[in-house]
Write a structure and sequence with these properties.
The chain has 12 helices and 9 strands. The protein is α/β, with parallel strands linked by helices and 304 residues long. The radius of gyration is 18 Å and the shape is globular.
Amino acid sequence: FTSGPALAPLSTEPAVCAQATYWIASCRGLPQELPYTGVVPLDYFARLPDGRLQRTDAASMLSQIVPGVPVCILVHGTFVDAAYHQREAAHTFDWIRRPAPHLPLHVIFFTWPSEADNVLTSPLLVNQRGRWAENDALYVSRLIAQLPPESPVCLIGHSQGARTVAATLQLAGGGTIGSFLAVEDMGASRRYRAVLVAAALDRHWFNPGQRYDRALCRAEGLLNIYNPADFALHVYPLRGLFSRQALGDTGFTLWDRIRLGANSCKAVDLNVAPIIGVSHTWPSFYSQPRIAEAMAPYIYFVDR
């Protein structure tokens, strides 16, 4: 993996007033299994223009959010530790800003405890991390509820981070996660768009009666970046009995689109196998300017 721009040591001084380049919202120290007991705050960090990463808080971040400016929330995949995520966030920010540097945008990277417990992975560990990723949608929903109601939100998720995105849209659409509704109002009129990258979730879970059947009800559009050559997603069905192929492997099939009905037109598939090859890793995607260009209308809420 490539390393990102060097970061100065994390400062523990009080939150600063300087305008942040982007923020990191972390639930790494919070419960991952439902039910959550009580309302616990996320940890926040601000990446400053000089490259320093500084601890901050929700109030300081929200004071810099301009109402009406799109907010992009990105969720990483499995087996990513905090230090690696901090480095990759810098690369990712530059990547998504490059197609439209003239357009205003706020960026928040959401990080969760996805790292492996040991060198060997197993279906049980993968399933546990997938469950955590889904549960963390409740934290993301609380984050969104604090944003100005005029601010549209684009959710981007890679691999199992796509489950966080799908589950967050499910909550925004009035659905449940593990029988739990969104705790706070996510904005009845808020605009949502989403991008799933190499999504590690069953391809039929957006269909009526399935896990995320309310997700597309609130989304204006969803870009599904899939890769039929992705080796990691080829073994996804082995995670458990009755598992389907991954959406990031197949895209939305004709059968699924028939089931989706009118919502099918909201979901756009983009096959990136010709430029990504067999890779599943995040750097393989953020090294491709053409993929960022395809994502831009969803991130910046502009239509070509």
